[in-house]
Amino acid sequence: MIxxxxxxxxxxxxxxxxxxxxxxxxxRGSIFQKSGVGLVEIVLVLGAIFxxxxxxxxxxxxxxxxxxxPRSAVQHSAYDVPPLLCVAVSPDQRTVVSVGAxxxxxxxxxxxxxxxAMVTSQYFELTTVCFSPDGSRLLVxxxxxxxxxxxxxxxxxxxxxRKVHAGRVTFLAYHPDGRSFLTAGDDDRNIIWNAQTLEPxxxxxxxxxATRSGAFLPxxxxxxxxxxxxxxxxxxxxxxxxxxxxxxSITSEPRESIVExxxxxxxxxxxLVVTRDGELGIWDARSGTRRLKFRHxxxxxxxxxxxxxxxxxxxxxxxxxIQIWDVSSGHCIKxxxxxxxxxxxxxxxxxxxxxxxxxxxxxxxxxxx
Length: 369
Description:
- The protein has a domain at 33-63.
- It contains three helices and 28 strands.
- The chain has helices at 18-26, 31-35, 39-66, and strands at 71-75, 84-89, 95-100, 104-109, 114-120, 126-131, 137-142, 146-151, 160-163, 169-174, 180-185, 190-194, 200-203, 211-216, 222-227, 231-236, 241-247, 259-264, 270-275, 279-284, 289-295, 301-306, 312-317, 321-326, 331-337, 343-348, 354-359, 364-368.
- It has a four-stranded antiparallel sheet. A four-stranded antiparallel sheet has the order 2-3-4-5, with no helix packed on it. A four-stranded antiparallel sheet has the order 6-7-8-9, with no helix packed on it.
- A hairpin with a 4-residue loop joins strand 24 (321-326) and strand 25.
- The longest helix has 28 residues, at 39-66.
- The two termini are 21 Å apart.
């Protein structure tokens, strides 16, 4: 059951002329009498509005609890905590970690689905998180442009912390071989780091906009990035050159063209791309051609995750809905009312049986697929 935190609002005062206020106090020609609306009618209208709002909330909660498909197995956080912005599953499929606007790392045991550790960072807002390929380290980005590296065997204090971007850290990713990782920020910089020495190896030439999502390709030394202005970029990390840049979103509203997520579909260069305006497409990052196009039923998409089975993807929206997609056909298989607010991030186990979502409502939700 979601607990709402009541917000106390201050009362405003209207200053009236002395003659009018005295008339009201004496009961001669009161405001209600002159308008023809009585106090009882106003109370009834306010009561009806409250009843409608409460009924809508109760319906949403019943949909989440009683949805016949995937179900919310565990909810660990209260409604009144700050938003949770990112979630990741460890490579050994034993641990889930979430981070958010309160600056806390929460680690959960996947078998018991209970919190196993909770650590407060020195930074107020944590924006993104990812595990190293061997699962021994945890990389965290902050809203202030810092990165922290944590040892998963001893989560008490970070082993490394440094300010690396002038703005928010928007994206983090390890190379599949574990020897390097990428940090991207609102300052339009994409930096490749040595994972052992924790020193920057090189920085990609500046693009036209900040990176919001990306992935290393399993085969070859290639990197795919999605930008704020709707571009899909393919980079060769050996030559450090841009191989191809494709505009995947054409809209008159720049905020709707953001590439909110992308997932690798094969060992070549085919990727599933989602933009904020609700459009999903399968693109070849090298040639810039689109093979399939389909749309999210809501207006905005905020997150994307590819299940390990390679057949299904999940997207989260600004309306709190999660959609499960058949990637081969572009059909929406199921729609789930998941969060009371935007869905910020999703992750799943490699057997594609369990999915975890985090949202603006400050909750982690576990879904049996």
